[in-house]
């Protein structure tokens, strides 16, 4: 019966050893699996990072293309605006030149008219010999008209004074019987 027990225990031992071995094998395999899993995770991460990088590069390229297109469009718009402004500028310059020409013509005409009128007044009053005060005023008034061709109103006070002087002179001439 001892031999049977021994043989049973042999069987037991073999079974145990087989279990141990199987367990060891399973452990090894699971370690490998873990290692494989880790390396595949690293690979996946690397692949993902690469994909992200590629995407980023593409996005950058696309956006810089867009930026370039935008810049081109903007440049075109600015060019157009510049052209319009230049055109307007030329138009205004032309208008201004015309206006200046017209106003200088007008100025010439009015100046000539004033000059003529002043000369007429001068000629008219040269016939009369008035006392020096009137002559003084006459000189002043003519000078005033020449200097203020644009605003003859500023000479009106002098003109009134002159007319009073002339009337007084006429009066005194009449009184003298001159």
TrEMBL record:
Coiled coil: none annotated. GO terms for cellular component: MICOS complex. It comes from the Eukaryota. The keyword Magnesium does not apply. Residues 25-44 are annotated as: Disordered. Pfam families: MIC19_MIC25. It is a lipid-anchor. Keywords: Disulfide bond, Lipoprotein, Membrane, Mitochondrion, Mitochondrion inner membrane, Myristate. It is found in: Mitochondrion inner membrane. The keyword DNA-binding does not apply. PANTHER family: COILED-COIL-HELIX-COILED-COIL-HELIX DOMAIN CONTAINING 6 (PTHR21588), MICOS COMPLEX SUBUNIT MIC19 (PTHR21588:SF18). This is Coiled-coil-helix-coiled-coil-helix domain-containing protein 3, mitochondrial-like protein. It comes from Equus caballus.
